[in-house]
């Protein structure tokens, strides 16, 4: 009887450790919720079996088999689902994956990211990158930000100013959509602050056709749209390449 109880206690400790690891992994992809307690259901079950073994071997077996095994299967099923969700929604910020993202996830529409530099200029400084894939109703974005020399930024500003169809000073896509003949742009995903709006020294340029209000189809802003462009700050000598799909 003592050996049996020790086995159940060992299993309780093992699954408790597994539950902690699982919770830590999930927490990295979002906020902690009460649903995380499901990760400790197998541990609690085997702990209960350990305690039940004090009174009856058959009761300990019943708890372990009738509740323990289904709880392990439930934990594995939910864990697989959450892992798939985290993988599908994780934001990539590793600059080393920049070209892989452009070659892979965004290859369905090369024009959308055709203005992005390939590769990143060798003299680029303070490079930052952000990519989030589309998932269910959520949109996708890709954004590359870096600092350059004043001469390089001025040259890029002149090049893209000639290409832009409309531009905005500061703000974010919500602000830009709600101006007269506004257009969807992007958020400041590569910024260091929690706020996702661009400071006023950035000029956000778009390369998409600007439709008049009467020519815009229903759901113009929300149903399967795309936008792309750059944001440039001469004050900071920075350029941000961006593209969105939703």
Q: What would you note in describing this structure?
A:
By secondary structure, the chain is α+β, with helices and mostly antiparallel strands. It folds into two domains: 2-89; 95-245, no CATH class. Helices cover 38% and strands 19% of the residues. The protein is built from six helices and six strands. It has helices at residues 2-27, 41-52, 57-89, 98-103, 150-161, 173-177; strands at residues 125-132, 140-147, 166-171, 198-206, 226-233, 238-245. A six-stranded antiparallel sheet has the order 1-2-6-5-4-3. A hairpin with a 7-residue loop joins β1 (125-132) and β2 (140-147). α1 (2-27) packs antiparallel against α2, α1 (2-27) packs parallel to α3 (57-89) and α2 (41-52) runs antiparallel to α3. The longest helix is centred in the N-terminal third of the chain and has 33 residues, at 57-89. The radius of gyration is 26 Å and the shape is elongated. The model has no long low-confidence stretch (mean pLDDT 79).
What's the main sheet like? 6 strands, antiparallel
Instruction: Give the helix level as a range of percent.
Output: 25-40%
Distance between the termini: 60 Å
What count of domains describes the coordinates?
2
Number of strands: 6
Number of helices: 6
| Class inferred from helices and paired strands | alpha+beta
Query: Approximately what portion of the residues adopt beta-strand conformation?
Result: 15-25%
